[in-house]
Amino acid sequence: MLAYAGMAGFLWLAQDSMIFLPRPAHGPAAAPAGWALEKVALTAADGTPLAGVLLLPPGDTLARRPAVLYFGGNAEEVTASARDAERRYGRRAVLLVNYRGYGDSRGKPGQAALVADAIALHDWAARRADLDPARFCVHGRSLGSGVAVQLAAARPLRCVVLTSPFDSLAAVGRTHYPWLPVGLLLRHPFESAALAGRIASPALVVYGAEDTIVPAIHSERLAGAWGGPVERLRIEGHGHNDLDLDPRYAAAIAAFLERHH
To answer: Regarding the domain delimited by 2-259, which CATH topology (the fold level of the hierarchy) does it fall under?
Structure first.
């Protein structure tokens, strides 16, 4: 009994460090050849500074462009992926702003703060004269899928891309710790499936068949709960962190975005 209470207490105290793994900036972000890179510095509603980059593809500078807002995994400094923007998203603007505590963003991450920041970033981008909010897409990976789903529930989006997503972080926790009352202990439950039914935007759900961190069943449950049309790509032979190595991954995202341009 004491051991059980001790384990539950440890999970309660250590969960932030288990869920969020902030990474420092990797140095200056590198845009694809010919693209413009704009540094982004925003202040959240509570005064926390957020930092990242906006990538703008070559083309007509007077046109309002479609854009992708990307929210990464729990150990990802998102500006490091700037050089892959064209390969993954085609010629669309891409907004890469780090979570609180990641890269050059300040503050401490948490579910409520990350979701509020995502909505603020969307609204900031929607006010720009060079971006078209009617053609915004959100892409969330792993932890970022929980942020992306809540943004899609709060704001209209053209489409949604989810990589290694989960039905809820609490459900994933129960898979790994079935002997603990994870639902009662978790401060950041990210209940995505509970929101999915109200989202009409088309979604692409990509996941690895061999994922041991977010087992495939959790991605499949979220896809099954989605309110709009869903495309699924289950990549055999890959797990949680190596989907990028399969050429089908970037190709599927780029093709999906093109269909919903």
So the answer is: Rossmann fold (3.40.50)
